[in-house]
Specification:
alpha/beta, Nucleotidyltransferase, domain 5, 2 domains, 5-stranded mixed beta sheet, binds 5'-O-[(R)-(carboxyoxy)(hydroxy)phosphoryl]adenosine, binds zinc ion
């Protein structure tokens, strides 16, 4: 069963063809990131205009690189939210129009859940439910209990900024540019992570997160100490990164303990951070938990995770009408 995935929740436009929920036949992504960098964040109008211009070409490119014809597609899957309304509208309109013209079914998919699925694409044979999942991106930082892909419960979430948003804001106040995550990671590599002690604010829910306090702490540190040397700035980035990663690890392991889960799926843009991956792997090994990461390229927004997740949902009986209201029919 070949599923066409369509993803336009933020600044990326993704079109993918995925066979049986696990093999990626084509995965094309176009990003308008460069156009946003001078504004220090995504400008919704610019994002949706670029998506409108690129989506048709990406679709044709995906068919060509997979070596298949439109008639070979069994299902069209599209991200319906959460995301920027204008951007979502481009993908949803494209998917619906294609479904109507090809006479194929269309299925709406939740963007955050598709980030969880990105790790399954790589480790398909090893995943056992129920497990715990952490989605850590520019818009979300949430822990989930995944009983199956049609039965996902929220265990905790950020009460203010998402973790990726904190990376982006810290990078902005340090004058590094946008997106901040990769820039902080690069700078932190030559810094001393123990130089400054930052900590994330406590939350009432033990599995919730808060990242706005640590961002403000970095701002105050910059104002008070105005670190100028390259070494001092690298240590500031490393100390921030260390604290942010530690809180993600501690809460994820606590969630696994509470749910007696032995597997942890991690997805979202921040999961591309190599320091985070190494630290999670070490901490999970110590707690006898197996953690699974997507390929680095599939941490960021992409349509392969949409096509993959849709295959499972469809098999479990999920059907969407043309308004993209989804029900389970089995
Ligand atoms: O998943 P994603 O592409 O979009 C959302 O759904 O939000 O994630 C983008 C976020 C940005 O905040 C970006 O700074 C962060 O992921 N990010 C990173 C790294 N690469 C991307 N954060 C930390 N370290 C990285 N290497
Ligand atoms: Zn995302």
């Amino acid at each position: 069963m070949i599923v066409l995935g369509v993803e336009t929740s933020c600044d990326e436009t993704g079109i993918a063809l995925v066979k049986d929920g696990r093999s990626i036949l084509a995965n094309t992504v176009s990003s308008s990131l460069k156009l946003h960098s001078k504004y220090g964040g995504v400008v919704p109008e610019i994002a949706s205009r670029m998506q409108l211009e690129s989506i048709g070409g990406l679709y044709r490119q995906a068919l060509k690189s997979a070596g298949i014809k439109a008639k070979d597609i069994s299902l069209i899957a599209v991200t319906t939210g959460p995301g920027l309304p204008g951007s979502l509208l481009v993908g949803v309109s494209f998917a619906k129009a294609l479904a109507l013209s090809l006479g194929k079914p269309v299925l709406g998919v939740n963007h955050v859940y598709s980030h969880i699925y990105a790790g399954v694409l790589r480790h398909y044979a090893q995943i056992r439910f129920p497990c715990v999942a952490l989605v850590v991106s520019g818009g979300h930082t949430s822990l989930f209990h995944v009983k199956s892909f049609s039965d996902i419960g929220v265990l905790g979430q950020t009460r203010d900024d998402a973790c990726g948003e904190a990376f982006d804001k810290v990078a902005k106040i340090m004058g590094l540019g946008y997106p901040g995550g990769p820039l902080i990671e690069k700078l932190a590599a030559s810094g001393d992570k123990d130089k400054i002690r930052f900590s994330c604010s406590g939350t009432r829910g033990e599995l919730d997160f808060s990242f706005s306090g640590i961002k403000t702490a970095v701002l105050y540190h910059l104002k008070a100490k105005s670190p100028k040397s390259a070494g001092e700035r690298a240590s500031l980035a490393a100390s921030f990164q260390e604290s942010a990663i530690n809180v993600l690890i501690n809460k994820s392991l606590l969630a696994c303990k509470r749910k007696r889960a032995k597997q942890l799926l991690i997805g979202g843009g921040v999961a591309a951070n190599n320091c985070l991956r190494r630290k999670f792997e070490a901490a999970c090994e110590e707690s006898e938990i197996k953690c699974f990461f997507p390929d680095i390229a599939l941490c960021m927004d992409n349509a392969a995770m949409v096509g993959g997740l849709a295959y499972f949902l469809y098999k479990e009986g999920a059907r969407s009408d043309l308004y993209l209201n989804t029900n389970f029919n089995n």
